[in-house]
Amino acid sequence: xxxxxxxxxxxxxxxxxxxxxxxxxxxxxxxxxxxxxxxxxxxxxxxxxxxxxxxxxxxxxxxxxxxxxxxxxxxxxxxxxxxxxxxxxxxxxxxxxxxxxxxxxxxxxxxxxxxxxxxxxxxxxxxxxxxxxxxxxxxxxxxxxxxxxxxxxxxxxxxxxxxxxxxxxxxxxxxxxxxxxxxxxxxxxxxxxxxxxxxxxxxxxxxxxxxxxxxxxxxxxxxxxxxxxxxxxxxxxxxxxxxxxxxxxxxxxxxxxxxxxxxxxxxxxxxxxxxxxxxxxxxxxxxxxxxxxxxxxxxxxxxxxxxxxxxxxxxxxxxxxxxxxxxxxxxxxxxxxxxxxxxxxxxxxxxxxxxxxxxxxxxxxxxxxxxxxxxxxxxxxxxxxxxxxxxxxxxxxxxxxxxxxxxxxxxxxxxxxxxxxxxxxxxxxxxxxxxxxxxxxxxxxxxxxxxxxxxxxxxxxxxxxxxxxxxxxxxxxxxxxxxxxxxxxxxxxxxxxxxxxxxxxxxxxxxxxx
Length: 514
Hints:
This protein is of the alpha+beta class. The chain has helices at 2-7, 14-29, 49-55, 59-62, 73-77, 80-91, 135-157, 177-183, 187-190, 201-205, 208-219, 263-321, 327-359, 371-385, 406-423, 479-489; strands spanning 34-38, 93-101, 107-118, 124-133, 162-166, 221-229, 235-246, 252-261, 367-370, 391-395, 401-404, 430-437, 440-447, 493-498, 504-511. It starts with a helix and ends with a strand.
């Protein structure tokens, strides 16, 4: 040690000798570092207590030995000790980490610094060598590295989840097999691209990807479900979790993103929801049918009373006094009975038609319909029922043909004419007109009745709708409902134009036949 120390002194004299003594005391006081000197050939020349503690040799055991005995067989075979000295001599300094060997053969992970020692004239007089034991740090790093490697292998091998990293800007930084399987991209196709390409156009327009990153950054994580896009453009229902990644000092380093394909579950939930909605719809429909049944029973019971009462009364009269009843009175009785029977027949027909409509069993045969002939039949039928009433006909388009069902068209017009006769004064006519319009033919039935206020008109074509001024007239309140249903079933339209005191005009529009 004296030779090396003297070579580095600033000059001879007591001060220099005192400084060299202090330096020697310092080196020998250090026990956490192995500090020793080598001659130019690498032979150990000095040995401090830290070296004895770290490497297991006493000074008398190791001084004079070559320092290569601290190296592993692999490093000796690679001539690492000689290369380290050569680099230190050429560059003045060499630092490395690696496994070294103690006296008892055990290994430790060493941080080694070798410094070239030169005299004032520049001659290489040896080397200073400082060694630290970093085995515990190395062990911790190895554990961490092994853990990170196992985690990397775990993530990369997962096939049922897409797990990948994003940069702070949202660009893809890693890609596992699950992501490739789920989204269809290979790693070399997608790394570096922005993750927003997995989102639908609507979600990108609403900046949903940016919202997800901002929420994850502010709250730590963001979870959502929605439709995402694969490489081939197909959609899948995804459960997405984005987590913000920060280092030990709190700096934002990026995001982790985990995506699951829940398409099958989504379909099952939607199917179940559809079943439940249908069940609720069926329940609501049953409640509606039950309400309608009750209303129908009430209406039928009410409207049956009048004709049945009339028929019963006349039958009792005929049975009691038929022999003494004049011929004219007999004809009147039979006429009144026939009239009430006709009312009953119409009531039954209306109820049957409404039942068919509600059950979806209404049959429509669409063919060209001769409106002129149909209107003539309606007028003839009205003349039989009400021989004293006048029905005027004004055909704007003679021989007009419409597309519809002949029987159902007759039924709608007969219903409208009957309704007009019922609400018109007996000394006023009912008018039927036709009008050709682009693509359709319109038949109008006008009366000179009391008219209908505007606020009541939207309810005319509903089931069991009875206007206040019509409650004393016979009828079920389903005639116009049936007319509306039959018109719509033939791809037609129906509406009313009316005002109080100005009468009413009901119109039926059917597609024009070619």
